[in-house]
Amino acid sequence: MNILAHGYLSDRHTDLLIGNFIGDFIKGNPSSLRHNLTPGEIAGVRVHRAIDSFTDAHPDVAAVRTLLHPRCHKYAGAAVDIFFDHFLAVHFESITGESLPEFIRYFYETLQANWVRLPASAAHMADYMIKQDWLTNYQYIDGIDRSLKGVSRRTAYPSGLDTAIADLERYYDQISHHFTNFWPILVQYIQKTRSDLLALL
């Protein structure tokens, strides 16, 4: 769900970016021949899973899940991912040193140049993402609301995500505080994880 964070943490490495982007669509062992992934893409899937595991276990993320649980229940984690991408987008240049529009252009162009490497379901999502410019719109409350409603339409059970924007507005400063604590720790952890994985290629 936190597409912008996954993209940025791929460190402008094409194979890592592709693997990281398709991570949710690859089930089981990413090195299995049935997935037909390059070594770099396999590493990207592993980076994706490392981001997810670290995020899910972190106390700042747990604190936000607790805030959102009364409305979103088991889908609170999905809302946290989207909310954290909002704060990353809003503060992108100050915390990464990069221009958000430039990074988004790079991200979209890399996916388009490697379209044949995306599983059909990932390509379908990428098409919607680029046409509707999700990553740019993550900066705005209306854009986050549209993303939440879009995810809500795809959940198997009532999720509360369709009205979760109310919680972002209510707890905005608290969620921002938790994101600010969490982000540099995640970056440091993934830098080490990424370096270790790339050393094996």
Pattern of helices and strands: HHHHHHHHHHHH
Q: Give the N-terminus to C-terminus distance in angstroms.
A: 27 Å
Q: Approximately what portion of the residues adopt beta-strand conformation?
A: under 5%
Shape: globular
* Most strands sheet: none
* Tally of domains: 1
Strand count? 0
Average pLDDT across residues? 97
Question: Could you give a quick summary of the protein structure above?
Answer:
The protein has helices spanning 3-8, 14-21, 39-57, 59-72, 76-90, 92-96, 100-113, 120-132, 134-137, 141-153, 165-170, 172-199. By secondary structure, it is mainly alpha-helical.
Quick tags:
0% strand, globular, mainly alpha, single chain, 201 residues
Task: Provide structural commentary.
With 201 residues, the protein is mostly helical. The protein has one domain (3-199). The chain has twelve helices and no strands. The chain is globular, with a radius of gyration of 16 Å. It starts with a helix and ends with a helix. The mean pLDDT is 97.
Set down the secondary structure blueprint.
Layout: H1 3-8, H2 14-21, H3 39-57, H4 59-72, H5 76-90, H6 92-96, H7 100-113, H8 120-132, H9 134-137, H10 141-153, H11 165-170, H12 172-199
